[in-house]
Specification:
Layout lengths: L8 E6 L8 E7 L2 E7 L12 H4 L15 E3 L5 E3 L2 H19 L4 E5 L5 H15 L4 E3 L6 H11 L16 E5 L3 H4 L1 H13 L4 E5 L5 H4 L3 E3 L6 H14 L5 H7 E4 L4 E2 L1 H9 L3 H8 L3 H13 L3 E5 L1 H4 L4 H15 L8 E4 L6 H6 L7 E2 L3 E2 L3 H11 L14 H6 L13 E5 L3 H4 L7 H6 L1 E6 L11 E4 L8 E4 L4 E5 L12 H11 L13 H15 L12 H6 L4 E2 L24 H8 L21 E4 L16 E6 L15 H6 L5 E3 L1 H6 L7 E5 L4 E8 L7 E5 L29 E9 L2
Parallel strand pairs: 6-7, 6-17, 8-9, 8-13, 9-10, 11-23, 13-14, 17-18, 18-19, 24-28, 25-27
Antiparallel strand pairs: 1-2, 2-3, 4-5, 4-19, 11-12, 15-16, 20-21, 21-22, 24-29, 26-27, 26-29
Helix pairs in contact: 2-20, 3-20, 3-21, 4-14, 8-11, 8-12, 8-14, 11-12
Bound molecules: iron/sulfur cluster (SF4).
Iron/sulfur cluster (SF4) binds next to helix 1 and helix 6.
Length: 750
């Protein structure tokens, strides 16, 4: 137990782990964080926390914390240096590389764990200062397909509704989400709702019988990557049985294949081929269960779908998102209480920090495309930089960026330097064998709080502050931005990213662009935030009303659109008469007309301003790899409740490390029998890309032929990402972490 009650003060903030965005209070005693408790007024968690959030303060005091800047010497060892020396060295090297190889020779790779102020600052420095769109972040690896889905279906990123819909729903559809372990507080809300309302149906669609699937009224088991066929089959059943909402479809949706539009009959004929029996053969999902799921989904009165990486980390991730949106549009289960499609974000600030600030290679603040003349000109004016400064050409997406990262001796690799912050690509990228050399050969600068697999490859390591040592805003899955106030000082000479970015800008002659050089991190944060909400004031994502003063007072932050200082924030988008969808002036600028007032629902999609969302006619397509004679198993990966991402923080909390000290491979008993494997045997897992060696756990969680490995283990031989597939979705460029064809070999007994 932590030191609840025995503290000098409690400081309001948000949890720094998953995208649920639980509100917390950090207990401070004698200048040290000694406890964390849930904020009872936070609308995300109502005072509850999972183990990671509860124990997060312990991360801050681990002896491994990076405390001083370090530069790698010729002999390969790091030497402690002053901040001036480290920053001068980085700035000089970046200038040299940009002068010699062009403005795009140095890339920024950020994280959904940076604060919004940090992502905004680095994005501005690169795009407005260096004139380079070589800006990416790890949300490309987790949420890009959800973004692609929202934008292609509705025309604007991020969910329609909020967590508050959970308690209003009559049917909860969880797809590709082990909510109980990855978003435990959301799962708690689902469970409570079910306990209070036994008639509420819970459907889980996913290859493994996870702890989430175990509580479901209906588990739809599917082979990895085949759920597109299940969604089409559900749509077929909904139409065949006349469970669809004809008026809703007529008024609010159009049928399209992405190029042409069609009448409804064309769609009905298209999905008709996906009979449940045929789909059962393809997916191993029982036909009767598909029928039952379709009936519950369509007729519940309010169906709420939540999904996460199981849907996104796929070569057909955007399509999977589109087809799931189809079911909501078809049945009118959208933009009303308890009914919406809702993506759960993996990281605390993937939405607020990276997507909303446009810190990806193709975006500008407000999630608007860099290729848009209008938005570039808009942002250039806001940033007070000459017209034509921002490059209209998108930079490289994450996988392409790392593929093009190499040293000065490698003419084929145009990116020669990189600055990474708060992420660990040397462990988290898929198909690691392909990308480690580029990181090693290039000029790599790493900002982090601990040594990681990535700092091992770095030329310069800059010690960063933890969120409770610097403060800042996180925007969680439900469009909610929450301010964390600084609680304590960072250890040694560790510094906030905003300060580091401002110091770098100063040394590169761009001080005017990043004028928040304050030593007081909250003062710098406020300046960055204020500029950010000004720049995005006229977008549908506006947080103009969420000034710092207000965020300090609001117990639970604010949800965008929040267009004015007296606006309460928006629980549900696209609903007329409930809350303004977005700033009217912004709409007028985009479409040169007033927001129509005669429609109940208005999706942003239609460039003509008609407000219709897309029901997509997408052909079925499977994953990039399916099992074969040489690689007879599917491998899928995921998280466990106690460990976060690559384990660099949670493995340093003794309680969490003890609970889940190492990775393992889950094998179905039938497969174990065939290969003469017992629990504890060491198993070599091999894909076309690499190998990993892990102890076996024989368990009936997945169907035969499907293996599961959690990916937090930092030991080289246990790192499963050597095995994972780096094939990407054509639209979102998100890799197919979730599906690889592999073979296994028992190499030793316990
Ligand atoms: Fe933190 Fe997520 Fe746990 Fe909430 S559910 S305490 S946000 S890790």
């Amino acid at each position: 137990a932590n030191a609840q009650g025995n503290v000098d003060k409690w400081v309001k903030g948000a949890c720094r782990f998953c995208g649920t965005g639980c509100g917390v209070y950090v207990g401070v005693k004698n200048g040290k964080a000694v406890a964390i408790k849930g904020n009872p007024d936070a609308k995300t968690n109502f005072g509850f926390l999972c183990v990671k959030g509860f124990l997060a303060y312990k991360v801050m005091y681990h002896p491994d914390r990076l405390k001083y800047p370090m530069i790698r010497q010729k002999n390969g060892n790091f030497e402690k240096v002053s901040w001036d020396k480290a920053l001068d060295y980085v700035a000089d090297k970046f200038k040299y590389l940009q002068n010699k190889y062009g403005k795009d020779a140095v890339a920024y790779y950020g994280s959904g764990q940076c604060t919004t102020e940090e992502s905004y600052t680095f994005n501005k420095l690169w795009k407005g200062g260096f004139r380079s769109n070589m800006v990416e972040g790890n949300p490309r690896l987790c949420m890009a397909s959800a973004v692609g889905g929202y934008v292609s279906t509705f025309g604007s990123d991020e969910p329609v509704g909020s967590y508050a819909d959970i308690e209003k729903s009559k049917c909860i559809f969880l797809v590709g989400s082990n909510t109980s372990e990855c978003h435990p507080i959301i799962f708690r809300r689902v469970m409570r709702h079910k306990l209070n309302n036994p008639d509420v149906k819970i459907i889980v669609c996913e290859p493994r019988k996870t702890n989430t699937a175990k509580i479901a009224d209906l588990w739809l088991p599917v082979d990895p990557g085949t759920d597109l066929a299940v969604f089409h089959s559900m749509a077929r059943e909904i139409i065949k049985n006349n469970w669809y909402n004809e008026d809703f479809v007529k008024n609010n949706a159009r049928i399209t294949d992405g190029k042409n539009t069609y009448d409804f009959k064309k769609y009905a004929d298209f999905v008709d081929q996906f009979t449940p029996e045929k789909v059962e053969k393809l997916t191993r999902c029982p036909a009767e269960d598909i029928r039952k799921a379709a009936e519950w989904f369509a007729n519940s009165g309010a169906t709420y779908t939540m999904w996460t990486m199981g849907l996104n980390q796929r070569t057909r991730g955007v399509w999977a998102n589109n087809l799931m949106h189809n079911l909501h549009l078809l049945t009118g289960n959208i933009a009303k209480p308890g009914a919406d499609p809702f993506s759960l974000t993996g990281q605390p600030n993937a939405c607020g920090g990276v997507r909303e600030t446009g810190s990806l290679c193709h975006l500008l603040p407000g999630t608007k495309p860099v290729a848009s003349d209008m938005w570039r000109s808009y942002v250039e004016k806001a940033w007070k930089i000459p017209e034509g400064t921002i490059d209209p050409k998108p930079g490289f997406h994450t996988i392409k960026m790392f593929d093009n990262l190499g040293g000065e001796n490698n003419p084929d690799k145009p990116i020669k330097g990189m600055l990474t912050s708060t992420t660990n690509p040397a462990q988290s990228l898929p198909n690691l064998n392909k990308y480690l050399k580029g990181m090693k050969d290039s000029f790599l600068v790493v900002l982090d709080i601990f040594p990681t697999r990535t700092t091992q490859l770095a030329d310069v390591v800059l010690p960063a502050a933890f969120i409770y040592e610097k403060g800042g805003v996180y925007g969680c899955s439900e469009r909610r931005s929450q301010l964390t106030e600084k609680c304590v000082n960072p250890p040694g000479e560790a510094k906030p990213d905003v300060w580091i970015a401002a110091q770098l800008a100063k040394r590169m002659g761009l001080e005017r662009l990043i004028p928040w050089n304050d030593d007081d991190s909250m003062a710098a944060n406020e300046k960055a935030w204020t500029e950010y909400i000004t720049v995005t004031k006229d977008t549908d994502h506006t947080l103009w009303g969420a000034k710092y003063d207000r965020l300090k007072k609001e117990p639970a932050g604010l949800q965008w659109p929040c267009p004015s200082i007296d606006h309460p924030g928006t629980y549900k988008r696209y609903v007329r008469g409930m809350d303004p969808m977005f700033n009217h002036e912004g709409f007028k600028k985009l479409f040169n007309k007033d927001i129509p007032s005669d429609e109940k629902i208005f999706f942003y999609m239609d460039k003509k301003g008609e407000g219709k969302a897309n029901i997509f006619l997408r052909p079925y397509a499977g994953p990039a790899e399916t099992p074969s004679a040489a690689y007879p198993f599917y491998l899928t990966t995921g998280r466990v409740i106690e460990q976060w991402h690559t384990g660099t923080m949670t493995m340093r909390v003794p309680e969490l490390a003890r609970a889940h000290p190492n990775a393992y491979v889950e094998i179905h008993p039938d497969d174990a029998k065939k290969y003469n494997i017992t629990s504890g045997d060491m198993i070599k897992i091999t894909s076309r890309r690499g190998t990993s060696i892990l102890p076996a756990v024989i368990v009936e969680n997945s169907m035969p032929g499907i293996l599961f490995v959690p990916w937090f283990d930092q030991r080289i031989s246990e790192m499963i990402n050597f095995v994972c597939n780096d094939a990407v979705d054509k639209g979102s460029k998100e890799p197919e972490f979730k599906i690889a064809a592999v073979k296994i070999e028992r190499i030793s007994g316990p």
